[in-house]
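> forwarded from #structure-qc
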């Protein structure tokens, strides 16, 4: 139905016939991200870049439903106008991203030259040896092979556009994940600790690939929902640790790259945060209550 009229300053729609009905007018969102005093866990910083150990729950940049309280808001407060503008108004300095509920290492460019240099390394996907990205993941069960590679293209799921999926579509993008099983928990293993190294960086890549081979991440309600019934197989301390985790058990533990200005190799490592550490400990020592 189409109606004609005008909206008054009181937020009411005045129809041509004289009748007025209430309408909800959303508050205007700021055009640019605003500086916010949010604590930043800084691992390294110089005049060209800054490396952050991002906590779980922190969104990287503003978007629908997350206009404030993001890493970008915190970076603007910390760096002022020095952030690179190549990523656009909403993503100043952002070279790569981590999911909201994934913790760990992330590098941000503080000027355009640094952004270009870092972006080139990420575009090469580590094939030239300059870039290294490795994650620690706790997955259901354990892959049969101690180490292996998942090479499967990823695209938006045709059934649910909010999810990614392995796809043979012509629009699917190449995705390669190398994994190594670090520890198996239980006999037979109910879960395992896996190191995943990215050769590409697609949205939700590790989560999609590990689910694809039958070992989704613990706590992943999007790609591992079918494994919720497996909760009772975990020892009680691990059940409690997983419930308190309330996110996918994924941590960006290693980040290495070549400094975009000096060419010096930089390497950073981050230990799993307390919530992931408690889960690993409870799985490794099932009789010890945290």
């Amino acid at each position: 139905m189409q109606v004609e009229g005008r909206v008054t300053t009181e937020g009411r729609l005045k129809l041509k016939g004289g009748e007025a009905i209430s309408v909800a007018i959303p508050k205007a969102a700021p055009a640019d991200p605003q500086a916010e005093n949010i604590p930043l866990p800084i691992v390294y910083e110089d005049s060209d870049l800054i490396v952050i150990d991002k906590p779980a729950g922190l969104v990287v940049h503003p978007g629908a439903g997350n206009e404030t309280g993001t890493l970008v808001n915190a970076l603007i407060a910390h760096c002022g106008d020095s952030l690179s503008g190549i990523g656009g108004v909403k993503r100043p300095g952002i070279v790569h991203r981590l999911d909201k509920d994934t913790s760990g290492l992330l590098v941000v460019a503080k000027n355009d030259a640094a952004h270009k240099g870092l972006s080139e390394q990420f575009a090469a996907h580590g094939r030239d040896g300059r870039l290294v990205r490795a994650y620690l993941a706790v997955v259901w069960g354990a892959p049969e092979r101690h180490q292996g590679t998942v090479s499967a293209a990823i695209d938006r799921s045709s059934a649910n556009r909010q999810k990614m999926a392995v796809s043979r579509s012509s629009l699917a993008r190449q995705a390669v994940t190398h994994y190594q099983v670090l520890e198996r928990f239980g006999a037979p293993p109910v879960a395992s600790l896996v190191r995943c190294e990215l050769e590409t960086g697609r949205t939700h890549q590790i989560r999609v690939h590990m689910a694809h081979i039958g070992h989704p991440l613990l706590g992943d309600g999007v790609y591992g929902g079918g494994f919720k019934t497996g909760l009772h197989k975990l020892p009680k301390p691990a059940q409690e640790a997983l419930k308190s985790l309330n996110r996918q058990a994924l941590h960006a533990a290693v980040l290495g790259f070549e400094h975009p200005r000096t060419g010096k190799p930089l390497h950073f490592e981050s230990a799993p945060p307390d919530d992931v550490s408690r889960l690993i400990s409870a799985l490794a020592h099932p009789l010890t209550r945290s």
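QC bot note: Helices lie at 71-79, 112-123, 205-212, 236-245, 274-284. DSSP finds five helices and 14 strands in the chain.
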